[in-house]
Each structure stands twice: as C-alpha cells, then as structure tokens.
C-alpha cells in the first residue's frame, strides 16, 4: 500500500510517501528563517508560505520517488492540532488531490503521528507509555494500539519546548533556542538548586512550566549582563558563548535550566508509570516507553528518560532526529496503519486548532464512486 502524507500544521510544509511501512522519500520546506525574524511563528505568514510551496513540493516528491500519482492508494493529511490557517492549506490540498485521483483520504492527529513515527524504524511493543515533548505540546499517553491513546497528563500552560525557547529569548538567543541551549549546556555545570522542578507537589501527571519561566525571568532581571550578544542575528553566524566568566555562567544557566526541564519530565513520566502499575489490570500494562517531538532531541531529556526506562527494564524507543521534528513521514505512516485497519474520512472532515480535541470520527473505507 502506498500512502502520501501531508504536513502543514505549523512552520514546516512536508510531503512524504510511505509504502508498506517503508519511507520512500520526503520533501520538506522549513519556514524557520522567515519566522526567526519575528521571534516566533507568525500564523498569517505561515499559511501563505504553505500555499506557495505545497504544490512544487508534491511535484518534486513524485519525481524524486519516480511514482505516478495513480499508484497512490490513500492520502493522509495532518488535521490538527495546529495553526488553523496552516492546517487548512494542507487539508484543502489533500481533499483536492483525493477528488482528482479518486482515492480515500484520512485526517491525521498530529500528536498521535509523532508518537507512532518510530514505527517506521522499529516495531513498537504495545501497550506503550508515550511522552510527546515539542514546541507546542507536553503530553503523556498510555497507548494500547495505534488507535487507542489515553491521555494521562499534559501541560496546563507552556509546553516544554516553549519554555526552553522563551528562556532562550530572555538570553538573547535566536528562535527556536532549544538546540543552542542543549549545545551550551555541555560546557556548563548544573546547579541543581538554581531552578525549581515545577508542579510536582500534587498527585497528577500534568505539567506546568510557567513557574520555571518566571524563576528564570526573575534571575535574569537581577543579572542583565547575562545575555548572548554575538550571533543573535537569525540570518548571521550561530550564537557562541562569550569568553571568560560570563560565558561559563551562561553555560551553567543553560545546563541548570535544561536539567530542571528534563528532571520534571522524568519525574512525571515515572509517576504515570507507577500509577499504571498500581492498577494491576491487563489493560494498564506497559511494554515500552516512547519519546517523541522536537525536544526528544535534547541530550538531558534523552538521558533522563533513558535512565527511567533502564530502571524499569523497558525498551526506550526514540525516533531518529528527522522523525522527531515535524515531518510528513510520520503522517504517511500513521495514514497507512489506519487505512489498513479499514478507516478513512469523507470530504467533510475539518481542521482542529490547538487546544481542541481531535475527534476519532473515522468512517469505513468507501470509494467516492460508490457513494
Ligand atoms: O516537534 P517540533 O519540531 O515542533 C513542534 O513544536 O511541533 O519541536 C520544536 C521544539 C522547539 O521548541 C525547539 O526549541 C525544540 O523542539 N528543540 C530542542 C532541541 N531541538 C529542538 N529543545 C531542546 N534541546 C534540543 N536539542
Ligand atoms: Zn509537531
């Protein structure tokens, strides 16, 4: 089965072809440079850019994979959560293509696609405990099958990546700052008491990173000299640590902030695992831990969740870097898995903006010609 995946939920336009669980190819255009000028994604600009590049990316993909459009068996498109205008570009393109090719189309939950992406590289032992950490989401799921996701915890304010990016902005780093903070952390010493491990004093598996952000803000208010001054221009050279004392203090700040985020993620995931195990029911079993999303690239987060998995003798599955960040391979893969289960949408399915639940409103596979 050949599935075309389309992703346009935020600032990446991507199309991919997956055949029988194997990625044939992907074309992707990131808008990071465009939005870096504004310090965050500007929704109107994002939609316009998706509309400009999506057609050429489709042509390029088919050409590179030497695939004829008629070979495509089904289409899968991210329907949410995401930026409404951006999602609508991908969905309109997918529906138009579905009509033209007379092929079934599926609207895909972007968060579930992130969690299932690793299935392109390894078989996922279900049930799995999943942690999705990106710029927009921090979710813990118990996943019993590709169709059954139970949300155990989520951020009640900023996502982990958002907190890291905002911290980076306070330090004068370009957006998105996560990779720089990770890089500079390697040269810094962690001061475990510098930042709080927020929102642990409860019995739930939710997150709240706003207190951590405020702690960083208050600290930097008192120390305005702790800022990156070189390489902060998004178009120029990458930022670098300044020499001397300020440089080592900045590296220590990055390492300490990153450790606070990583510890908090690990502690809440450990709590979720403990609560599932306490249930002692067959349905609450955990056979693996999945880590996904852009922040899964972070070395401290990987090490922390890796240690948790090892302590509990569970395999940890983390997709390779290109499958961690937004991509269309995960959408195509999820589409293929769901379509094999006999599912599809009719042309009435809609986009779902951030903050709203993506419904499980699939229908049974019908050819349009059959009504
Ligand atoms: O999943 P993603 O590509 O996009 C969505 O948000 O959907 O995640 C992007 C996030 C950004 O916040 C970025 O700063 C963060 O992932 N990120 C990192 C690292 N690489 C990317 N955060 C910490 N350490 C990294 N190495
Ligand atoms: Zn994403």
* DSSP summary, beta strand count: 12
* Average pLDDT metric: 94
Strand order of the largest sheet: 3-2-1-4-5
Strand and helix order: EEEHHEHEHEEEHHHHEHEHHEE
Low-confidence stretches: 366-371
Question: What is the CA-atom radius of gyration, in angstroms?
Answer: 21 Å
Strand content: 15-25%
Please report the number of helical segments: 11
- Helix residue percentage: 40-55%
The largest pleated sheet is described as: 5 strands, mixed
Shape: globular
Name the ligand types. Answer: 5'-O-[(R)-(carboxyoxy)(hydroxy)phosphoryl]adenosine, zinc ion
From the helix content, strand content and strand pairing, which structural class follows?
alpha/beta
How far do the termini sit from each other?
22 Å
Descriptive report:
The chain has a 5-stranded mixed sheet, with helices on both faces. A 5-stranded mixed sheet has the order 8-7-6-9-10, sandwiched between helices. It contains 11 helices and 12 strands. It starts with a strand and ends in a 7-residue tail after the last strand. Helix 2 packs parallel to helix 3, helix 5 (160-170) runs parallel beside helix 7 and helix 6 packs across helix 8. The radius of gyration is 21 Å and the shape is globular. With 371 residues, it is of the alpha/beta class. Zinc ion binds next to helix 4.
């Amino acid at each position: 089965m050949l599935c075309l995946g389309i992703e346009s939920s935020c600032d990446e336009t991507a199309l991919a072809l997956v055949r029988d669980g194997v990625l044939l190819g992907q074309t992707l255009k990131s808008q990071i440079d465009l939005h870096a000028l504004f310090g965050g994604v500007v929704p109107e600009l994002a939609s316009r850019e998706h509309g400009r590049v999506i057609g050429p990316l489709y042509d390029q993909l088919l050409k590179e994979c030497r695939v004829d459009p008629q070979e495509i068996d089904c289409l899968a498109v991210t329907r949410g959560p995401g930026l409404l205008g951006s999602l609508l570009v991908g969905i309109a393109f997918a529906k138009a293509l579905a009509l033209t090719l007379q092929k079934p189309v599926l609207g895909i939950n972007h968060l579930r696609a992130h969690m299932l992406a690793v299935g392109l590289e390894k078989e996922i032992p279900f049930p799995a405990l999943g942690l999705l950490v990106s710029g927009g989401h921090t979710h813990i799921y118990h996943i019993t099958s590709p169709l059954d996701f139970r949300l155990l915890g989520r951020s009640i304010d900023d996502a982990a990546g958002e907190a890291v990016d905002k911290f980076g902005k306070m330090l004068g780093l370009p957006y998105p700052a996560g990779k720089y903070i990770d890089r500079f952390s390697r040269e810094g010493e962690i001061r475990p008491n510098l930042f709080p491990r927020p929102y642990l004093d409860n019995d739930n598996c939710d997150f709240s990173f706003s207190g951590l952000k405020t702690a960083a803000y208050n600290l930097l208010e008192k120390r305005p000299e702790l800022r990156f001054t070189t390489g902060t221009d998004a178009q120029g050279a990458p930022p670098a640590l300044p020499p001397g004392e300020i440089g080592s203090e900045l590296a220590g700040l990055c390492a300490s902030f990153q450790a606070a985020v990583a510890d908090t993620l690990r502690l809440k995931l450990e709590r979720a695992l403990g609560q599932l195990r306490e249930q002692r029911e067959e349905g609450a079993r955990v056979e693996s831990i999945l880590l996904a999303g852009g922040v899964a690239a972070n070395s401290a987060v990987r090490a922390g969740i890796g240690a948790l998995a090892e302590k509990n003798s569970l395999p940890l599955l983390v997709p390779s870097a290109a499958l961690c960040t937004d991509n269309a391979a995960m959408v195509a893969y999820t589409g293929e898995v769901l379509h094999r289960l006999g599912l599809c949408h009719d042309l009435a399915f809609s986009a779902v903006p951030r903050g709203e639940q993506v419904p499980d409103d699939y229908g049974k596979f019908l050819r349009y010609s059959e009504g």
